Every structure is written in structure tokens, then in C-alpha cells.
Amino acid sequence: MIRSSRRRFAAGIAAVAVAALPLAACGSSTEDAPNAKPSAVATQADIDAALQKETTLTFWAWGPQYADVVKAFEKAYPKVHVKLQNNGSNNTEYTKLQNVITAGSGIPDVAQLEYTALPQFAFGKSLVDLNAYGVASMKDKYSPSIWSEVNVSGGLFGLPQDGGPLAMFYRQDVFDKYDLKVPTTWDEYIATAKKLRAADPKKYMAPDAGEAGLTNALIWQAGGKPYSADGEKVTVNLADEGSLKWAKTWDQLIKQGLIDTSSPSFSPEWSQGLADGKYATWITGAWGAGTLQNRIPQAKGLWRVAPVPQYEAGGKASGAQGGSASSVLTASKNKLAAIGFVQWMSANEDANKIWVDEGGFPSTTNMLGGDEWLNRKVDYFGGQQINTIFAESTENVSPGWQFLPYEVYADSVFSDNVGPAYTKKSDLAAGLKQWQEQIVSYGNQQGFSVN
Asked: Does residue 17 register a pLDDT over 80?
């Protein structure tokens, strides 16, 4: 990013903070820009040596699995002490993280960042480019789609912790009661939704109150690539073929009242709908399996998993919703130990086992392709081997998707622009057009060159 762009990008931080929209400021770090190739700083031997020295690291994360992962790491490396701090999930953490970065004190060594947020902090020069430490050699440990999510304009700004390949969770009891067949295409999904609503107007095919994360994932599945960034040059095209393909499909579900658009995700009414069979399906990332088991334990044995429906019969395309990485902050005074900690959490076999045993989704190919994980029968899902579906979905996620370098902001204004379509006051294509206009305007205000 050019210097004048960085100044304007940083100048927008104060206004963003007031609006509680976390945007990564451009700090005073000497790290290279995301699209530059850094020179080597250290080797793996240096990183390994750092883990044998007395060190204290601060780690910000909200995932419930991290507590036991940290304990196992400290057992493996007793000289490294990790202070795990939960400062709230996603946007709550990002706001606090940006505040300490701006203040220049209280910055953690390592932070959990969703893939949607990682580019903002990378372009803000707040994250260490791991390429300078030889960490790119770990590339083959991950699926191409997951690996691409931690690479921003040529820089490697974290290591994957989990992923969110799309799947369709469905209620077996509801499908049995109304003699519904599991849909394999979106056309079949719409037809099934009509049959369900005709049989019982109190039930819906799925919940979706209008959220950017699911929208991006389904556009991704449709082959869309609406965002691209190369340094300060950003392109936004929410009228590409994939975006409009999703809009045409989802418009039918909304306008015919086939999905519940009034219950936001994780609201009490949303949770109740998943529990009592109000919703026949839930389209989301693979992490939804853990969410159902932890939030809706009373529905044990009633849910199943199927591949996400396809836009084309016989297709196998997928997208991803959610997932996060562990990133090292440029302000860390213990970068080598922090990098070693991140490597261990992301790719160590013991760490991966703890992660999946506690409901997390794996990111490494060894775990994704391992018989023990693939063949695991999950009681909550009626003994189904759900991981085989998730693994196949991971393989079918198209690599090359990019999030905006200010994706957190863009997602925060999704409802303002696309929301009217969910209340039948507009259509999705028009909503996407309006959303694009605001995204472009904001990016230009922040010093990017957006078209």
C-alpha cells in the first residue's frame, strides 16, 4: 500500500472506532507491505531454539478449544508460558485489538482472526508476514482453499486453525414426517421448501435473516469472485455471474416465504427453531456441527448432514463460511516463540486431536484425510460419518477467493443495503448493487483505488 493510502487508511480509524467498526490501522511497523516479498529474517532452527527459552506469550482467542490446546503446548514446551485471554468473539475482539494497536500498548503476541478480518489487519501492517521466517514451507500441510485464506497479496499472515466448508444440516424427523427427499440441487431445494410449507405453514426450509457471511459463501460456491485486491488496488463486482446466480436462487426462497428471514443467527428464536424442528435445514459451514451439539443438545439424534445443494445437477462445487487463523502481531517482542506456538497449534498432531475432539473443524490435510477422523461416527447425528461430507466439501472449495482489505466494515453494512430484499421491499440484485456502491465509496475514502 502506498504511503499516502496508509495515512488516509489510518485517518479513518477514529471515525470507525466511534461507530464500533473495527478497521485495522496502518501502524509504525517496519514489516513489509502485503504485496512485497520480505527478506529472510530467521530459520526454523531459530524458531525451535526460541521455544526452549523462558518466554511469556499473550494470546487473544475466543474458541472454546484453545484452553486445552494451550495446556498441551505448555506441557510440550514448559519454558514457554501462554496467557490466554478471551476478549470477546470476532468483532468484539477486533475492536479491542484495534484499540490497543492504536494505543501502542497491551498488544498481544498472537491473536485469533477470522479469515474475513485477517486482510484488514494485514493491510494495516499489524501482522507479521511469516514468509520471512520460512513458514511458507508448511503449505502442503493444508488444503489449497484453506491455505489461500491466510495469504494476502503475496504475504502469509497467519496459519489456519479451522475452516468452514459448506454443508446442509437437515432434520431427519421433519423430512420423514413430510416425506421429503434430500435435495441435491438448489432447484430441488426450492421445490422441497414449497412442499414443506404447503404441508405445514409453521415450518420453514431454513433460517436466513440476511448475513454477509452466508451470502459470500454461496456466491463463492456459485463461482463468483466479486472481490480482488492487489496492494491499494481493489476491484468490487457484485454483479458477476456467480453473484447474480445466487441472487436469482435466493430471491425465490425469500419472495415465496420459504425461509425464515426474521430470526438472526444465534438469537433465542433462531436457537429454538433449530431445536423444535421449525427449520428443516440449516445451510452453513462445517463448524455448524459443533454449534448444534453445544447449543442444541436436546436435538441429539434428529439432525443429519448432506452436501450443500448444487447450482448445476451433478456438480460438486462448494464455498466456505467462517474459519479462523492464528496470527502473530508485529508489535510482539517474542516473534520467534510466537511463531513456533502458532505452528504447533495449527499443525501439531496432538493439538489437532484436541481441536477435533472438542468439536473443532481441522485445517490440515493429515487430519482431513485421516481414517480415524473420517470414519468417526457421531451420535448426535444418528451415528452418521459426517466428516466424510465435510472433507469432500473442503476439497471442492474453489481456491482463489479473496476478501476485501476492509471486509469487516463491508460485512457490517450488508444489512443496511441488502436487508430490504429480505423484507420483500427490493430484490437481491438491487441490494448487491447498493452494497457495492457503499463498499467502493468507503474504500476510496480510506485511500484505496477501488473500481
From this structure: no
H-helix segments, 143-222: 144-148, 172-177, 186-199, 212-221
Distances in Å between the Cα of 179 and the Cα atoms of 171, 176, 196, 199, 274 are: 12, 5, 9, 10, 19
Cα–Cα distance measured from residue 205 to residue 289, given in angstroms and rounded to the nearest whole number: 18
Q: What is the mean pLDDT of the chain?
A: 91
Q: Which helix (H) or strand (E) holds 303?
A: strand 303-306
Structure-block grid coordinates of residue 448: 484505496
**Number of other CB atoms surrounding residue 202 within 10 Å:** 7
Sorted by where each starts, the structural domains of the chain and their CATH numbers stand as: 3-161+323-362 (3.40.190.10), 166-320+401-450 (3.40.190.10)
Mean pLDDT of 28-34: 43
pLDDT (average), residues 145-169: 95
Each residue's pLDDT tens digit, 393-411: 999 998 889 999 999 999 9
- DSSP per-residue codes, 247-284: HHHHHHHHHTT-SB-SS-TTSHHHHHHHHHTSBSEEEE
For residue 358, name the pLDDT band (cuts at 50, 70, 90).
confident
How many residues are given for the chain? 451
Can you read off the three cell numbers belonging to residue 256?
415465496
The answer, yes or no, to whether residue 16 has pLDDT greater than 70, is no
The helix, strand and coil proportions of the chain, stated in percent and rounded to the nearest 5, come to 45, 15, 40
Q: For residue 202, give the DSSP letter.
A: T
Q: How far apart are CA 6 and CA 379, in angstroms?
A: 51
Backbone angles phi, psi at 128, to 5 degrees: -75, 130
User: What angle in degrees, to the nearest 10, is found between the helix axes of 335-347 and 349-357?
Assistant: 60
Range 37-44 average pLDDT: 81
Please compute the mean of the pLDDT values over residues 380-399 and round it to a whole number.
95
Q: DSSP class of residue 105?
A: S
Mean pLDDT check: name the lowest of 126-135, 261-270, 274-283, 397-406.
397-406
Rounded Cα distance between 10 and 73, Å, is 36
From edge to edge, which strands make up the β-sheet containing 449-450? 227-230, 233-236, 449-450
Q: Contact, 121 vs 127, CB < 8 A?
A: yes
| Residue 385 CB contacts under 8 Å (≥ 6 apart), including other chains | 374, 375, 376, 377, 378
Work out the number of other CB atoms within 10 angstroms of the CB of residue 86: 16
- Whole-number pLDDT of residue 273: 98
